[in-house]
């Protein structure tokens, strides 16, 4: 922690003169932020995100550190000479970069989970997912309505929708670190979390549609639900038909990695735009659908990844026995590289855009609301609902399973909850108070769950 703060202090001192100089220019009458200055601030945001990611050394997910250091960057705007940071917080270009980050994040999430895997998780994962969506949604709606009187109906809907989220990435990381990733409980949680992603995005699409239309009739909800389902179903069917054919055609033009990446991003961009333009849904819904349909088999016509081809050539030239353990392991490494080739390079692109999104989200937190004990108390109450709603879903299935492990495994909201909050703010439903409440919920569910899971697993092993 001391090292993290020392690095943060050095970077703050390094960029202070530049930002102070830019701030003085604005004071003198220049209201336009130049592109080099905006780019420089994006790099500062990325540096703060990387420093924040050091929380992984104390067993916490990187997203939490990125969010917290975004809050820190927002605090710096309060210091004399750094008021220009407020201009960056509302800059359209930075907001667009953050939007690209969240689209890539959902695309990557879709790539990690394909339709075949979702079919294999079974009825138990589906039950856990449904209960884990219904209970938090109802609880979040009624508790927020009771604790935050006077708000519009749409605000309560949005808070309820935010609580339905589950961060599959955070839970998967904890399970992997603790060596229980292959247990039945872990499989059920990860399967249910993937289904939660789909259901949560559908709920987000429906709630956003209700906000946009301004009406809340049964016919409106039914139409929006039907539209969301039709878009997802149509996107999946059309995508699975088009993906292999487009890959076959474009691989004849060029079968290298660049064309493969272009095809992947083409699907991501087209589906994200289609979701917004054709169905009135959030672009992230389309990005998730694009990732869901792109299986490794669709990229078979393209050249094998360089590392994979070298491994297979070395095995062939070495003349080693194919039945030997080391050859089997080398083939497994080659297969992993081939299957995860697109994901690996999407990760490299995302390593710039996605952290910007989380830091940008942290910067949007209005710290003045934390001076109100009532708001903090409401956030703690809604956090309790967020915990209870997910923990209870672990008890919705029978069998000799560790139901606590399943329930708490569904608790982290992480990046998915932040996406919901960000969408709510963009469409004007969520004000500073509600946004701060949601961020507190995300922080608490993300921060407290890993140690709780660790303790449950340790006790179970004993």
List the defining traits of the structure above.
2 domains, Na+/H+ antiporter like fold, mainly alpha, 462 residues
What would you say this structure looks like, in words?
By secondary structure, the protein is mainly α. Helix content is 77%, strand content 0%. The protein has helices at 2-27, 35-52, 62-75, 85-89, 92-112, 115-120, 122-147, 153-162, 168-177, 184-213, 218-253, 257-279, 283-293, 306-318, 325-339, 341-363, 373-393, 403-409, 414-426, 432-461. It has two domains: 1-90, no CATH class; 96-354 and 365-461, Up-down Bundle (Na+/H+ antiporter like fold). The longest helix is centred in the middle third of the chain and has 36 residues, at 218-253. It is built from 20 helices and no strands. The model has no long low-confidence stretch (mean pLDDT 77).
Biggest beta sheet summary:
none
- Radius of gyration using CA atoms only: 23 Å
- CATH topology of the largest domain, by name, is Na+/H+ antiporter like fold
| Beta content | under 5%
Number of helices: 20
Helix-residue proportion: over 70%
Distance between the termini: 32 Å
Annotated CATH architecture of the largest domain: Up-down Bundle
Q: Strand-and-helix sequence, N→C?
A: HHHHHHHHHHHHHHHHHHHH
**Count of distinct strands:** 0
| Mean of all residue-level pLDDT scores | 77
Total count of domains: 2
Ranges with pLDDT <50 over ≥5 residues?
none
Q: What gross morphology would you assign?
A: globular
CATH class category name of the largest domain: Mainly Alpha
Report the structural category: mainly alpha
